[in-house]
User: Fold this.
Amino acid sequence: MAITREQVVKTAALAHLELPDDEIETFTGQLSAIIDYMGQLNELDTSQVPPMSHSTLGEHVERTWRPDTVTPSLGSAVATANAPEGFRGFFKVPSVITRASGDSDAS
Amino acid sequence: MSDSATNTIAGLHSAYAAGTTTARAEVERRLALIDQLNPSLNAFLTVTSELALAQADASDARRAAGEPTRPLDGIPIALKDNMVVTGVRTTCGSRILSNYLPPYTATVVERLVEAGAVVLGKTNCDEFAMGSSNENSAYGPVRNPLDTSRVPGGSSGGSAAAVSAGMAVAALGSDTGGSIRQPASLCGIVGMKPTYGRVSRYGLVAFGSSLDQIGPFATTVADAARMLSVIAGRDPMDSTSSEAPVPDYENGLDNALAGVRVGVPSEFFGDGLDAGTRELVESAIQRLRDDGAEIVDVSLPHMRYSTATYYIVATAEASSNLARFDGVRYGFRAEEADELRAMYNRTRAQGFGAEVKRRIMLGTYVLSSGYYDAYYDKALRVRTLIERDFSTAFQRCDVIATPASPTVAFPLGAKTADPLQMYLSDIYTITANLAGVPGISVPCGTSEGLPVGLQLLAPHFGEVQMLRAARAVERATPA
Assistant:
């Protein structure tokens, strides 16, 4: 196996995916086969070859810059209209920090 | 199904000018055809009837007022459902965006509408454009209009099927590893991926940002050229869009190929290529020679590493791009979680389908600490070698000719159990995305009664010569 069950579990946590046991099993087999296949790149000596993250069209370089000017934007009402849960133009989410048991509000 | 009088831009424009039909009549006819065919083909996810009829009426009114005809005036088109239109549901074929109503419109759509096009609706696709058969949509598979037991190809299968079946005259798809060219090949139509940077990606939901490119489907090369002329060009909203001037892609389309060098890379004609496909592609190349082209042998020696390279680069970019789908700002949210992290994890687990999860997992793995150098960095270096192969080959030729797909359309379910086999369906198309060069699939005949596409590749911004060569294939292919 190119990838172990434990690595799949760890990767799922990094990827914010809750996977049931049967999916972890399936993925362990499938990802192993694919990662094995990817191993063929090791046949090539690339120590003297630079990495290419984008198509290297020379003219790309200059046009990544533009003046930093303020332009009209959507506004919070439109920008939050698709939110599963909103509150007065904000996005509402479940609690981020859960209190340890025994804590209570110091009031 | 295809009738050149009313299934091409030129045909429709002559008919409109002669008064034998109107944009409204053509749009009504196609809406009726969608009603009739969509239950079996599943090509459209959303039909924008009201919008389409209003745009058709506006086109008819412009003509009645004597205004000059716009490049796509009254032409019914379809959009892959990963391009946003204000207020029109955009799902990307995913449950996680089942209720998403975009607050803005993609630049390509603004340009099409400005050119007079009529938007019929949004087409089905593999979820987030990840797939080669259109079986990964949360809304069910698309079926090939030429044989409904077979796939239309993917990921832009709905757009390909819509044009192939005559529901739309042209359509837009997106191509990250072949997702326009492969379904065009399997559905018997023309499909083109322009040079990376030729067409704005603003409003295209991102999959692999260094690979994604929007392009047209049409029944003829001339129509694909017209569509490209409309959508190409610099867009301030996409910093990777090129300032290179946009030529008239229809100009000189019928020029003979005298003096044009067509490169044939042996690496694209090896094991895994169907005999029938090989025969048709080779005889199409022979006909290019008859048209005056010079056929030269070229080599792309690192092509055999392209699938491995692609599925590292594309999944790495996908895992990063799809991190934004977390149940906070838009889309689906899992209900039962009472804590933020659990909400993220459950939303993504329930909102994404199996293939998308698989690619997010792969991409996360190849980017993770301890594996980044071995996989992601390695793949970026091999990507350089693949681009160098093209640079070397294009010193000896003007365009490269290959098969678009190793096989004709395959039966539904044939490859769903083995993801790696499915990935190998893209073997002839992904190199162009890695190198950023343009590619087109043009029909070159039928094998076992199913269409085969010839793929032409050109240097960066070499679309003019590529389209002329594609037109030469089209001219020489018996109907």
